[in-house]
Every structure is written in C-alpha cells, then in structure tokens.
Amino acid sequence: MACGGLPRPSLVAETAERGVRPEMNEDQFGPAGMVDALEKIAGRRHVLCSEPDRVAYARDLWPRSTIKARAGKTSARLPCAVVQPANEAEVAEVVRCAEAFEVALIPYGAGSGVCGGALAESPAITVDMKRIRHLEVDKNTHLARIGPGVIGQHLETELERLGLTMGHYPSSLYCSTVGGYLAGRSAGQYSSRYGKIEDMVESLRVVVGGGEVLDTAQCAKQHGVDLLELLVGSEGTLGVITDSLMRLHPLPRHRWYRGIRVPSIEAGAEAMRALLQGGLRPAVVRLYDEIDTLMASKGEEPSESSLLSRLLERAHQSIRSTSPSGQGGGLRALVERTARGLMGRVLGAPMLLSRATTLLPSGCLLIVGFEGDEEAVALESVLAAKWLQRFGEDMGAGPGEHWHSHRMNISYKMSPLMDTGAFSDTMEVSTDWGNLMHLYHTVKNALAPHVLCMAHFSHAYVDGCSIYFTFAGFADCLEETLALYDRTWKAGLTAVASTGASIAHHHGVGKSKSAFTAEDHPGGAPLMRGLSLALDPAGVFNPGKVWPAATLMRGDKS
Ligand SMILES: Cc1cc2nc3c(=O)[nH]c(=O)nc-3n(C[C@H](O)[C@H](O)[C@H](O)COP(=O)(O)OP(=O)(O)OC[C@H]3O[C@@H](n4cnc5c(N)ncnc54)[C@H](O)[C@@H]3O)c2cc1C
Q1: What is the DSSP track for 247-286?
Q2: Is the same domain home to 173 and 281?
Q3: Considering 201, 233, 250, which residue would you say is the last residue of a domain?
Q4: So what's the pLDDT on residue 375?
Q5: Nearest C-alpha to atom 28 of ligand 1 is from which residue?
Q6: CA 257 to CA 149: how far, in whole Å?
Q7: Distance CA 117, CA 384 (A)
Q8: I want to staple 420 with a disulfide (CB 3.0 to 4.6 A). Which of 286, 295, 343, 440 is the partner?
Q9: What integer is the mean pLDDT of 217-243?
Q10: pLDDT of residue 71
Q11: Both 456 and 321 in a single domain?
Q12: 274 CB under 6 A from ligand 1?
C-alpha cells in the first residue's frame, strides 16, 4: 500500500519535463562530477538542479527565513542539488556520494520545520525523502512499517480505512512527513493520550556514515544497546531515517469534549495536573491564558498568526473598501503604508500592549476531551467532570466541540502579516509541574519589552507540561525586524534556560535554538561529539543543526 504523492509536484514535474539542466559551475553545483554521480544513483528525473527547485528546497518554515523571503531575499546559500532517492539502497549511495565529494547532506521531509533545520550553510546535497513512502500494516500486532516520506494526513487516511490510527495529529498534519516527526521529536494534538512520536516508535532503520544501515532493533538484540532514543530527535545530524516500525491503536469511536472556565491560569494548571496525576488519560487538555482565551473563543485555533493576521486583514479590508477599484500604484502604496502604520502603532509598543492585556476579563478557558471506546470514555468523563468542579465552571460541550471542529484552522495566514513588516513566531517549552508557573511568568516577562505575547498550555503528562508561547512584533525595515526577532528569541531562550526548563518540546532545535543546546544539556557535548564521530566520521550529516559545529569540534564544511 502506498501513500500520497510529492508536495510541490508542479514545480518538480515541470522541471523534470523541461529537462532543465543549467550550466554547471562548482560554486553553485558542488564539485565537478557530483551531479552526474547523483544522476547515476537516482536517475536524471530525480536530481533537481534548476534555480526554482533549489530555492524551493533551500529553507523550511523557520519564520526568520520567511521574514527574509517576504522581503525578497532568497536564502544566502542554495543546495548544490536536490536528490529524490527511491529506496534505502539509493539513500546509502547518496550518503557515500556526499562523503566522496566532501559536501554536506541535508535530509528533507516536507519542509514544515520551523527551526531552520533544512538550511544549507555549506555546499550541500538536499535529500528529499518523499519517494520512500511504503506502508505495511499488521492488524494483529497493531504495528506498521512506515516509510519516512509518508505525509501525516495520507497515513491517517489509510489507517482510518483499517479502523486504526497512529494517534499523531500535529497541526501541520497536511504538510509534514513521518521522517520529519521522528527526526524532530514531534508532538500531536492528542499527545496526552498517545504520547509524542518517540512514544509511538518501536524501532528505526537509519543510513549512517559509509552508507551503513543501522537497524535499532537488531542492534539492541545483538549488542544489548538500543540507539533508538539517540536517533529519534537527531534532526538529520546522525543519519537518514529510511524506515520506522510504529505502534497503532484502534480508531476511537466515541468522544466527549468540555470547556471549563477557570478563574486563573494557576487554577487551570492545577486542574490539568489533577487529571493527569489522578490517572486519567484525556486525549486533549489545553489551557489558554487570558489573551489566548480571547482568541480561542473567536473560532480559530490560536496560533502565531491568527490574532495579528486577523487584525491586519481587517485593516486592509477597511482601507480597501473605501478605495476605488482599479487603484493605481500610488494609491496601493498609500493603502500599504496605512496598514503598515496601523500595525506598527499596535505592535510597536509591546510593553503598553502587554499591560493593556492585563485589563482583559480574568478567567481562562480549559478544554478537556476524552476519546476511545464507549465505556472507557463514559467512565473517564464522569470522573473528570466531577474532579473539574473543584477548579471551575462547566461551560458544557460547546467550547470543546468548537475546538475539535477548528483544530486544524491554523497558521497558514502567516504571509499577509509579514507583508506589513510584522512577524510572529512560537516557542514551545516544557518543564515539570512544580516549575510550570515560574517558567510561564519568567518567559512572559522576558518577552514583554520586545513583542506582544500570549500562551497556552497543552501536551500535559503525569510529570509535567509544555507551554506554547505565541508572539508578534514589528519593526520598520528588514534589518530592524531581524534584529528585533533575534533579540526576542535570545531573551526568551535565556529566560527558559534560567528556569531549568527545556528549550524544545516538539519543534526540535535546528539552527534557531542551537546556541542554547549546551545549556539545555549540560555536559552533553562530549557525548554528542563521540556519537557524531562514530556514526558520521566524515561529518556530512546536516552540520550545524542541534549543536553548533564548533561545539562538537567538527568544524564546518564551508
Ligand atoms: C503550521 C504549522 C504547524 C505545526 N504544528 C506542529 C505540531 O502541532 N506539532 C509538531 O510537532 N510540529 C509542528 N510543526 C512543525 C513541523 O511540522 C514539525 O517539525 C515536523 O515534524 C516537520 O516535518 P517535515 O516532514 O516537514 O520535516 P522537515 O521540515 O523537512 O525536516 C525537519 C528536520 O528533520 C530532518 N529530517 C527530515 N526527514 C528526515 C529523515 N528521513 N531522516 C533524518 N532526518 C530527517 C531535516 O533534516 C530537518 O532537520 C508545525 C509547523 C507548521 C508550519
């Protein structure tokens, strides 16, 4: 059974059909002979060298890259070539090719990563994994062999036909791959019930240095050492994931959702903790702070862009509705300037705006949902409803069902916001229950001078919870916007590190947070260096991601 097709099909197909093969020069396309070698491995049709293809694969959805792209700046460095291997054997040959030509190798799923994991910082081959998309389901064991290139939505559609689910529903389900989830330790919206991706994986096959294939199950059996935990979350820095054995569950047939109004964010967090530590396994438990509560009640899953893009759209609409149609360049520029000015005035005073949000009506929305077998849902929901009475007011099924039907209405409105010079982003961090409120207040205070910030608490577990901060800022020109963006992240991550919390819950680390990895894992660098030398002696795998190349003393290949 195979799933789906390649995203960006038109671009890829058109390029191949036109047989575009630009004049090769070493600066852009890597050492002489490399593209020929790749074509021998994957076939000419599956080696992309045209500029549009290389631009398309040169970045992921890291907002910093999007800010630059919206300002008309393409990535500083494009990959030398993009190769689309059909199977594990071809991946192994591509790895040997990268080693022989001494260029970096960047695995690429669907490019929905938000941390710059796909950026090429030195001459590189980008390896698009979406042709490797096998799916073999064992209905008896509830295990499935899944290719790394399978898109999440395609996977769940196939499994649903068999009455099964993997239970992994990230908001990016339509535009991300299983390989990307495993590489970044992804979490779906139902993580409290099914766990994160690392809780769903039984074993992996990974092509490492020299094109060797490492099977974590066999390795554990033969040597008594299971490398699975080290490879999940390695973000392409230790090898290329070519196959996964994943656990499945029966498709839930019943659900129960509720909204609870709690008097404060603290009371809401206590309610979440009581549910999880009391032994219940809600599918969903999400707590919105005051400003995020305002957003959640407006019919859209709060996200990095929804509040501000809606503000902006309104501004554009009202300005345009008063402008004659067929407006000329001068008038259009005036419209843009007015929208920009409005945005600038709103976001240019983040402290004031943050203070204004304290005037919002107090009270936060907590969404709780159970899914599964009818009897189990009935039992758990009765208990949950009883326990939650202690913490707040039951608002009935409405808010929960509302969340459920809008849960995928997210983030795709990023671009209009960025056209005005504004930016937005999210920071997902996690800690234990005892440290949770300290983390929340410390990060909010650190971000307040720079950006407008809101947050929700989701992905709750027995021992702790993650906080998803959403923030937006504005500056007048590209340079200032990038400087503000960098200042904001530095302030935020410094604050997270000061509380001892983790800098990444499910987006990974990539390039954007790598300067803070050493603080997140004190003493981890020598271990990672040893691992990197063992699995990647030539130092080709996605250099500079997760750990700065210099920290691992691997140098860079530029
Ligand atoms: C709108 C939106 C919503 C999002 N919501 C969520 C969410 O709810 N939960 C969540 O966890 N994330 C979310 N993300 C982030 C993103 O979708 C995840 O990080 C996802 O796991 C990336 O998958 P991908 O296939 O797009 O990977 P890519 O972006 O292509 O790659 C991500 C990293 O993994 C590496 N990689 C990819 N494939 C392989 C492979 N086969 N072997 C080795 N390394 C590999 C890449 O080199 C890169 O470092 C969201 C992103 C967006 C844009």
Answers
A1: E-EEPP-EEEEEEEEESSHHHHHHHHHHHHHTT---SEEE
A2: no
A3: 250
A4: 95
A5: 111
A6: 33
A7: 40
A8: 343
A9: 94
A10: 85
A11: yes
A12: no
